[in-house]
Amino acid sequence: MPDKRVTLADVARRAGLSTAAASMILNGRPDTRLSAEAHARVNDAAAELGYRPNVAARGLRTRKTSTIGFISDVVATTRFAGGLIQGALDAAEKAGHVLLVLETGGDPARESKAIAAVLDRQVDGIIFAVMRARELFVPDIPQATNVVMLNATNKKHPVSVLPDELGGGRAAVALLADAGHRNGIALIGHNEEVEKNLFRSATVGQRIAGIRAEMAERGLRFAAEESCWEWEPSQGYDTTRALLERRGGIRALVCMNDRLAFGAYQALGDRGLSVPQDVSVVSFDNDEIASYLRPGLTTVGLPHEAMGRTSIELLLDRNRRPDCHLIPMPVVERGSVHPSAD
Predict the structure, then answer these.
(1) Environment class of residue 27 by beta-carbon count within 10 Å: exposed (0-12), middle (13-18) or buried (19+)?
(2) What's the pTM?
(3) Distance between CA atoms of 87 and 95, rounded to whole angstroms?
(4) How confident is the model at residue 200 (pLDDT cuts 50, 70, 90)?
């Protein structure tokens, strides 16, 4: 038979105080008016007995369970977006909360079951997260439920956390412009359908808007804009190879993500062009692949851990703004940008 659970009354008895006094001390009440010696006796008794508070009972009294539901599509099983969970876990632990993580694979039926599961456990709020930032459909949930959208948006739940892609797009162009590049800059990965469809992406439109805004502000124009349906290495390779065969004078590439840049590296190599001496390359996301390319790829990263932390902080903040909270994208400079002779 398992050992009997140690109760608050057991701790009070060991400390020689009332249950009410022991409760005030263990709950950190600042107005107990009890001596330091009494505090020490209660804390020592709790440690000796291995006392653990009954969270479920406390939740019934306070209507707070110190538990947060984290519902995602494939964030938990996708390496690239794992920082969203890590950041959320760190912030939840710091705030004395437990994160209950459920994954749905994007299946609406599983999403409804996940919502029911966390509501049954009386969580203090729900974070909905997706791997690829987009407008997200969310099944109906009680209006009183605290909800934060992480890497996603939803009109019914206006508190959201997204990367500042507008600023990120500007930063990518600034890297090239500050290195003296003015001519022969090409864009790899332009995709108008994705840029305008929030259900495909809530951020790509902002990324390209930032790129274009910085180009215009610097008085620059793209020598070419190459469209890609998918942002994969094969597309980056084929698109860059076709561009180089069609025209010369390309001195810099802005790739819409690191996987496109990986393919672009291979196409440049096949043409006998070196990065960055012949062609500078900047990209986005700071995928792990960026650090393994040679030379290392200069990229504007997705701030996943900071986004995860912010989502928890907003969920627990009673004064949060019903707004989209943008997290700055860090510039990770490696070796793929070289000063231009322009």
Answers:
(1) exposed
(2) 0.80
(3) 12
(4) low
| DSSP type of residue 277 | T
Q: Are 177 and 187 in contact (CB under 8 A)?
A: no
**What are the E-state strand segments in 82-146?**
98-103, 126-135
- Tokens 């939740």 sit at which residue? 59
CA-to-CA distance for 202 and 196, rounded, in angstroms?
9
DSSP E strands in the chain: the ranges are 67-72, 98-103, 126-135, 147-153, 160-163, 185-190, 224-227, 252-255, 280-285, 298-301, 324-327, 331-332
Task: For residue 251, give every residue at least 6 positions away whose Cβ sits within 8 Å of its Cβ, in sequence order, or none.
Answer: 181, 183, 184, 185, 278, 279, 280, 340, 342
In the numeric block, which tokens belong to residue 50?
């291995």
Q: How many residues does the chain have?
A: 342
**How many Cβ atoms from other residues are within 10 Å of residue 186's Cβ?**
23
- Residues in a beta bridge with 187: 225, 254
pLDDT at 60 over 70: no
Distance CA 250, CA 184 (A): 4
